[in-house]
Design goal:
This protein is mostly helical. It is built from 55 helices and no strands. It is elongated and about 125 Å long.
């Protein structure tokens, strides 16, 4: 068939090109084996050749009941099964998946159902080939082989069913969706797999095989559909039932372990499915209960009694007391190491996503050898308390802990013994049992990891205390948690699995952990949740530091450090008592010099997490300032490399006084005045190694070679974090860091170049932060401008220019544009003209690049430059920038348009600034046609683009409407675009867009109202503008939008710009209603803006009163005569007595004193203004009296509150 025709090898290597094009799966046509008969001639024997020969013989056979036929077929099957398909030899032939499928289909035609011994041999061959060669069967072959297997289950004797199911499990691996027509017979009511996997099945091996088949059915591959939910539910219930059931009597331990392992693997596949989302409820609690039970399965000295369901609670519960089993000493496993027992390496490469659990357990012997060779030995009969580091040694440097710790510092698997209490067979069986028990624990952890990924974190955190330790209680045994496994399990793979689960729980937990706090005085009556959570975090730090000190496996050690990094990234250290990071800091230093590259990289990742966690932290600042040798991590670099290397292991002991390796060296100089972490990272990036630091890269490292690329990249990231969070500590080395970045840019490795560019950008941003108006850095402690100028001169004369012009590396060009945008404006002014011209010319050129990220970065940098004082008054530069921005606003990329809209907003900000600083000269020189084009482009972006573009387009529209002069508005070409621009802003205020768009739209309308040339009050759009702002101030659920809309309503300075009396009355009623309801918020988070909203509403209402005319008084008096009068009175009185330091909204450029006396003086002026009206109608006079009476009551209340209390 077409699917099995010979195809060229993807790898290009010679292969057995079998021609199976004439095979007909629906008939009995003879096989064509052209090219296969002589395949072995002149060739050394190998799996590919033998496979071809056997297939040729299979094709030459016809089905028969003769004994000779059965014998020959049996020998062929044996030969195919006995081949070592993992062996390497010269001129090997690759066996293709379609070749395997064709052979199995041909073999299935030769074996009849009544030949049960051959049926078994064929099933063994199917399992063996699919498992060893990691083949997923194609669809035509799959239908034939699955149909054969299901019929064999119905036709053959029960004693053959285990082998048939084993073959079926290999067939359905990754092919679950293709089994649709067979699922009723397999998983329906009374289906084969349902019957054989039920608890009533007496044959445990048959039951295990059926469960393994169910697990493979649940496996989903990327891009393929999963099983229907009804069948998935059957599988879930079956797996859960097996995991909940007690161990049957008289069952072999290893068979039971294999059953549990298959059930856990099936549950993992189920949870990995797209529809396997679990919610809070009985199923989740039941699943977590059984997973916790099997996470400790087979661990010596732990007897965990779990309930059937775990319920979410913030407090620890349902924990049984761990009891040490008092079995005889003969159960202690042998811990001697056989000198001649070398670990067998796994042969061949896995081609499947999860080959270990796919088709079988063919690598068990290699894993057993690995367990025997593991430095951690399982056993010891150690009690629970002997596996933890006591509080006396918690938090001490590793060198101190090694000198003072009792022998129980390291668990029992760290202390080897040469005496074996078993005979060899007995010890071998115990080792094999421990291996299978470890696999069960590992399967439970993998399943738990899948559950963490498919359950919402907020639901999962309800079970936090069941898996994460709380603060230890005096007199009570410690709880059994994930940290217990990381500290005590003898298998390094299980320990690594528990750390992966813990890392997944900690990832993204910042919001949940932010509730932790223990800085206040301790409470005696009860313990708040915040304190309980803080205690849990402290215990996590303590336990993971202990795991760091005790771990001997490099792979697991990497997981420990990664878990610590996740913890540091999410813990609110500002709300906890200091000291946690100091302990961690003291322990992690030696691991930067570890021989394993992955450990070194993860150690640097952890250091980066520390310096970036809620930076700047005073505790971290002090640690960074400590000189080497003062007990910090820097001091550890000059001592023994790690606690593991300082302690004898496997006959090799590390020197007690060992010179630091080249990975941990520090540059020469005065270390007292330098940040040691800065020195370390710089040396890792630019200085060559004297000796190889890792066994893995020692062979490839030439003398004088630099650190491996992952180490250098991580060191550059740590430098970037250090500059971002603690710039004041590194600013003295500004020029040195600039040279480091330049050296990185000169290299050929794109990753090194990018990280070097990122470091340069962080340096520029750090300087800008120091010179911001709200910076807390005093002038004397800032980097001098002359030094900043020198820094940028060296940068611009270095390899940055080449990076800007490197079209083959657009990502580097993008980063280089970002670097140019981080130049300090004061320094840019002092740069030579040629340097300024270089920056401007390159950015203008790159703003027309065909690459979208480069174009976006260049346009953004121009948006930064247009705000520079030395450039914003240059009409030609502003015009060139405007043309570039307008071109980018029409780009297909949303990211480019968003950056262009932001730059357009900055450019229009420059126009407003120039109105005040330059005056009419700049306005007259600026092109009217360009201004009109900007107005139309901004309006188009506001009406029909994405919200991220609209948010800045409306800001630009507000500035442009503010900038327009009477000469512009008198021209017919501007009248239409001006009306469209105002309508666009009105629609943006009313729209359902993001709150940022609506906030900016309100701000833009207020900005436009400042233009006295705008026909506000007489234009047709006036009523719509005020209606949109009134609706926003009363109905918008976001209080920041309400504040900005109220501020916009207070901008017009003349009464006639508010329209007629009816329009004025609508505004007044809307503002009064908004003030009365200012405490009503849909979202609790909006309450923090209530004070600011009331302040702005009172200010706007008073502004309207100051402009009020006699015709407006009836509308103003109406709310003051209703039930809302007491609330309005209270808010006005509070506004006039408030100091103005709390909840003060933005003034929109209007300077107003916050002193109560000045506010009251302003209120008295308003009262005088209202009293000064001439003759009025009786109705108006009554309204005037009500308004004046209300204001006088407010004045009286304020004066009474300010009066001193009488003394008695």
């Amino acid at each position: 068939m077409a699917a099995n025709t010979a195809v060229p090898s993807l790898s290009g290597a010679p292969r057995c090109a079998l021609d199976f094009s004439t095979i007909n799966h629906s008939g009995d046509a003879a096989c064509s084996v052209n090219g296969c008969a002589g395949l072995g001639r002149g060739e050394s024997g190998g799996p590919g050749v033998q496979f071809s020969r056997c297939y040729s013989k299979l094709c030459s056979l016809t089905p028969s009941d003769m004994e000779s036929f059965k014998t020959e077929l049996n020998l062929l099957f044996d030969q195919l099964i006995s081949e070592n398909y993992y062996s390497d030899y010269a001129g090997s032939y690759t066996i293709r998946a379609e070749d395997v499928c064709s052979l199995l289909v041909q073999a299935s035609r030769l074996v009849k159902y009544n030949q049960e011994h051959l049926v078994i041999k064929f099933c063994q061959l199917t399992h063996h080939l699919l498992n060893r060669l990691q083949v997923i069967v194609d669809e035509p072959s799959f239908d034939r082989l699955v149909s054969y297997s299901t019929r064999a289950l119905a036709a053959c004797s029960p004693w053959t069913h285990a082998e048939i199911l084993q073959a079926l499990a290999a067939l359905v691996y990754g092919n679950g969706p293709k089994c649709q027509k067979y699922l009723p017979d397999l998983l329906g009511r009374g289906g084969v797999l349902v019957r054989y996997s039920s608890p009533s099945q007496p044959d445990l091996e048959l039951r295990r095989t059926a469960v393994h088949c169910l697990a493979n059915l649940c496996l989903g591959l990327p891009g393929q559909p999963y099983l229907e939910e009804s069948y998935r539910s059957v599988c879930f219930q079956t797996f859960l039932q097996i995991l909940q059931a007690p161990r049957p009597p008289n069952v072999d331990d290893i068979v039971f372990c294999m059953l549990l392992q298959d059930a856990l693997k099936g549950m993992q596949y189920y949870l990995n499915g797209a529809k396997g989302k679990l919610t809070a409820g009985e199923h989740l609690g039941t699943l977590l209960a059984v997973l916790k039970k099997y996470m400790f399965f087979g661990l010596w000295g732990i007897n965990l009694e779990m309930p059937t369901i775990l319920y979410p609670t913030p407090l620890p519960q349902y924990e049984g007391v761990p009891a040490a089993k008092e079995d005889s000493p003969r159960d202690v496993p042998a811990q001697s190491r056989q000198p001649g027992n070398k670990k067998r390496k796994s042969r061949g490469r896995s081609k499947k996503a999860e080959p270990e659990a796919g088709h079988g357990e063919d690598d068990e012997e290699a894993q057993e050898a690995e367990v025997r060779q593991s430095p951690r030995k399982a056993g010891g009969g150690e009690t629970h308390s002997h596996w933890s580091l006591g509080p006396t040694y918690a938090g001490r440097p590793s060198s101190v802990a090694q000198r003072e710790a009792p022998p129980s510092l390291y668990p029992s698997w760290k202390r080897s013994s040469s005496d074996s209490e078993f005979s060899d067979p007995e010890g071998g069986m115990q080792s094999k049992l421990r291996l299978y028990q470890a696999r069960v624990r590992q399967g439970a952890l993998h399943c738990f990891l899948a559950a963490v990924k498919c359950v919402e974190k907020r639901v999962l955190y309800g079970y936090w205390s069941s898996f994460v330790p709380d603060a230890p209680s005096i007199g009570s045994p410690p709880a059994l948690t994930l940290l217990t496994i990381a500290l005590k399990d003898p298998s390094p793979k299980v320990r690594a699995g528990s750390l992966q689960v813990l890392s997944a729980l900690l990832e993204g937990s910042r919001k949940f952990l932010s509730a932790a706090e223990d800085t206040g005085a301790p409470r005696q009556a009860f313990t708040p949740f915040s304190v309980t959570l803080a205690g849990s975090l402290r215990e996590l730090h303590r336990g993971l530091v202990l795991a760091l000190v005790a771990e001997s496996s490099s792979q697991t050690l990497t997981q420990v450090i990664k878990c610590l990094a996740h913890l540091v990234c999410n813990v609110p250290y500002g709300r906890l008592r200091p000291g946690l990071l100091k302990t961690l800091w003291q322990q992690i230093g030696p691991y930067v010099s570890h021989r394993d590259v992955n450990v070194r990289v993860s150690s640097l990742t952890l250091l980066g997490a520390v310096v970036s966690a809620q930076a700047p932290l005073s505790e971290v600042r002090l640690l960074l300032q400590q000189p080497p040798g003062s007990g910090s991590a820097s001091g550890a670099l000059s001592g023994p490399s790690t606690p593991q290397e300082a302690q004898p292991q496997g006959g090799r002991s590390g020197p007690e006084k060992e010179a630091p390796s080249s990975c941990g060296r520090l540059p020469e100089g005065n270390s007292q005045s330098q940040c040691w972490l800065l020195q370390l990272c710089v040396s890792l990036v630019v200085q060559p190694r004297e000796d190889p630091c890792s066994d893995s890269d020692a062979g490839a490292a030439a003398p004088g070679a630099l650190e491996p690329s992952p180490v250098r990249l991580e060191a550059l990231q740590v430098l970037a974090h250090l500059v971002r969070g603690y710039f004041s500590l590194v600013q003295a080395h500004l020029l040195e860091l600039g040279e480091v970045s330049a050296q990185c840019l000169r290299e050929t490795d794109p990753s090194i170049q990018l990280h070097g560019a990122k470091l340069l950008e962080e340096l520029g941003s750090g300087i800008i932060q120091q010179y911001r108006g709200d910076s807390a850095t005093e002038q004397a402690y800032r980097v001098p401008v002359r030094q900043v100028v020198q820094f940028w001169l060296e940068v611009l004369s270095g390899p940055l220019t080449g990076a800007l012009q490197n079209e083959l590396h657009p990502t580097l060009q993008t980063s280089a544009c970002d670097i140019l945008s981080s130049i300090l404006p004061q320094a840019f002014t002092q740069l030579p003209d040629k340097s300024q011209l270089l920056c401007i010319t390159v950015l203008l050129g790159l703003s027309y690049s065909e690459n979208s990220p480069v174009k976006a970065a260049a346009v953004r940098a121009l948006g930064v430059y247009v705000l520079f004082p030395c450039l914003r008054e240059d009409v030609m530069f502003v015009a060139d920038t405007a043309n570039s921005i307008l071109t980018s606003l029409e780009d297909r990329s949303p990211n480019v348009r968003a950056k262009a809209a932001w730059s357009l907003g900055n450019l229009t900000d420059t126009l407003i600034v120039n109105m005040a600083s330059v005056g009419r000269d700049f306005q007259e020189e600026f092109s009217d046609m360009l201004l009109l084009k900007m107005l139309r482009s901004a309006t188009s972006a506001c009406l029909g683009d994405k919200d991220r573009v609209k948010s800045n387009a409306v800001r630009a529209l507000g500035n442009l409407l503010h900038f327009l002069q009477p000469a512009h508005l008198s021209r017919s070409g501007f009248e239409g675009p001006m009306d469209e621009a105002v309508r666009a802003l009105i629609d943006a205020v009313r729209s359902d867009a993001t709150m940022k768009v609506r906030w900016n739209a309100c701000y833009a309308l207020g900005n436009a109202f400042r233009n006295p040339a705008l026909p506000l009050g007489t234009a047709p759009w006036t009523a719509d503008a005020y209606s949109a702002l009134s609706q926003a101030v009363t109905c918008c659920r976001n209080f920041k939008v309400r504040i900005k809309s109220a501020a916009a309503l207070s901008v017009p300075a003349e009464r006639d710009r508010y329209g007629g009396a009816a329009q004025f009355g609508k505004l007044w009623r809307a503002l009064a209603r908004a003030l009365e309801c200012s405490n009503e918020a849909e979202d609790f988070l909006e309450y923090r803006y209530c004070a600011g909203l009331r302040t702005q509403l009172c200010r706007t209402l008073l502004h309207l009163m100051s402009l009020c005319q006699p015709d407006d008084l009836p509308a103003v008096a109406a709310p003051l005569a209703e039930e809302s009068r007491p609330a309005l009175h209270a808010y006005f009185a509070h506004y006039h007595l408030d100091e103005g330091n709390q909840g003060q909204p933005e003034n929109d450029g209007v300077r107003e004193s916050c002193q109560p006396q000045e506010k009251l003086g302003r209120l008295e002026e308003i009262v005088a203004h209202l009293r000064s009206f001439p003759e009025m109608s009786p109705h108006t006079r009554e309204a005037q009296t009500q308004v004046v009476s209300f204001l006088e009551e407010v004045l009286r209340s304020c004066h009474e509150s300010q009066a001193p209390s009488p003394l008695y």
